[in-house]
């Protein structure tokens, strides 16, 4: 129960309205604690009058936008305290004591410090990327310029895509629900705003992802024997990192809405149909139906796979052929048969950026909904029961 949510100068008149006069020699905060400890019914009174902390938080929106009067469940005297005696500037100060930029800088520093101190997690991620890169490079060893096995190299692109998809979806799905519990407490105390926290969270994850992602892609690119051209490698890295950022946004959306147990089911279940859509059309690319093309455009993995394939195959010389005849020695034929002949670099980048924005926006609003006082735990319990019965 929240007994008071507002500016410090308004605490004494608020207490007076419920019949508890704070002596002039008393500290108001101590007086509140003494009152709550000695008179149990006072907590229920105070919580009811401030609507369990909703009143002040909703007042700015209800009072000053459009000139609408606030709809309060308390009596006129409480409305007078919070409406007539509080200026708009004071309301803004009640929200957060620092600016967005200050909050963003402090939160970013804190998140970097937490990552540095949690060295075990970094070592686990390093081992995961190194072992996966070596294994993947060994499976597709030197197939990059082999004209007799272009489909194998296309499977290499799919494997890279799957790695970035599941790795960066599952990390926030498993870890972010624990972060939400701490966030709810600090946000309720009005230490910082959700926008600043979310911006810091997004920014702080980029350096680690860039370092480990480039390390993974560099090892696999060299071991798989891809053509050694800087522009191709840079594009290959860009598409891989963008896929990872997009997957992380999807993982944040799932981690914001569900706990780790349910999220570990929802995350892969959401990614699986997207993966199926992205691989559709292998062998009959020019004949993909219009409705399937529309469905495929809803999968961000399709843009990632097309980008990785274009980076390796578009505008390159004929591949080496160790047999009498290699159908796909000309890379343009392979792009045609997988349905990527008309795709361009920029279209895939724009598509991934759009999905990054959509996933992050969904995650933000889900998180915001969970943190608002109107959030109902019953809704989440119904979802949990549904998943258990399923």
TrEMBL record:
Q: Where in the cell is it found?
A: Membrane
Extract the Pfam families matched here.
ABC2_membrane (PF01061)
Q: Where is the ABC-2 type transporter transmembrane domain positioned along the sequence?
A: 102-312
Q: What is its main location?
A: membrane
For this UniProt record, the keywords arranged alphabetically read as follows: Membrane, Transmembrane, Transmembrane helix, Transport
The GO cellular component terms are: plasma membrane
Q: Give the way it sits in the membrane.
A: Multi-pass membrane protein
Transport recorded as keyword: yes
Any one Gene Ontology MF annotation carried by this entry is:
ABC-type transporter activity
Instruction: Name the InterPro entries on file.
Output: ABC2_TM, ABCG_transporters
**Record protein name field:** ABC-2 type transporter transmembrane domain-containing protein
Question: What is the scientific name of the source organism?
Answer: Parnassius mnemosyne
């Amino acid at each position: 129960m929240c007994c008071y949510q507002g500016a410090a100068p308004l605490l004494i008149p608020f207490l007076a309205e419920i019949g508890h006069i704070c002596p002039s020699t008393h500290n108001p905060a101590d007086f509140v604690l003494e009152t709550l400890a000695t008179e149990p019914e006072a907590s229920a009174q105070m919580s009811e009058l401030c609507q369990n902390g909703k009143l002040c938080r909703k007042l700015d929106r209800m009072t000053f936008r459009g000139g609408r009067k606030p709809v309060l469940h308390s009596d006129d005297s409480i409305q007078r305290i919070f409406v007539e005696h509080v200026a708009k500037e004071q309301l803004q100060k009640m929200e957060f004591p620092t600016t967005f930029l200050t909050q963003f800088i402090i939160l970013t520093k804190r998140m970097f410090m937490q990552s540095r101190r949690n060295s075990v997690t970094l070592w686990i991620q390093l081992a995961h990327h190194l072992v996966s890169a070596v294994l993947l490079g060994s499976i597709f060893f030197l197939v990059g310029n082999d004209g007799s096995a272009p489909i194998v190299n296309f499977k290499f692109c799919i494997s890279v895509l799957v790695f970035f998809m599941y790795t960066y979806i599952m990390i926030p799905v498993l870890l972010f629900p624990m972060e939400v519990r701490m966030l709810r407490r600090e946000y309720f105390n009005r230490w910082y705003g959700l926008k600043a926290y979310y911006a810091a969270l997004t920014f702080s994850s980029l350096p680690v992802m860039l370092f480990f992602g480039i390390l993974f892609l560099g090892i696999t690119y060299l071991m798989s024997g891809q053509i050694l051209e800087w522009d191709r490698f840079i594009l290959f890295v860009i598409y891989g990192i963008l896929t990872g950022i997009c997957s992380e946004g999807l993982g944040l959306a799932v981690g914001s809405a569900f706990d780790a147990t349910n999220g570990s089911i929802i995350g892969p279940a959401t990614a699986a149909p997207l993966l199926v859509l992205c691989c559709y059309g292998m062998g009959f690319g020019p004949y993909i139906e219009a409705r399937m093309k529309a469905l495929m455009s809803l999968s961000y993995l399709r843009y990632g796979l097309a980008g990785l394939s274009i980076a390796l195959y578009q505008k390159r010389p004929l591949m080496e052929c160790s047999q009498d005849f290699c159908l796909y020695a000309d890379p343009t034929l392979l792009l045609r048969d997988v349905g990527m002949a008309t795709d361009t670099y920029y279209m895939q980048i724009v598509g991934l950026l759009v999905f990054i924005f959509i996933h992050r926006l969904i995650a933000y609003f889900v998180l915001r909904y969970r943190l608002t006082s109107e959030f109902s735990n019953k809704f989440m319990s119904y979802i949990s029961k549904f998943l258990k019965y399923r």
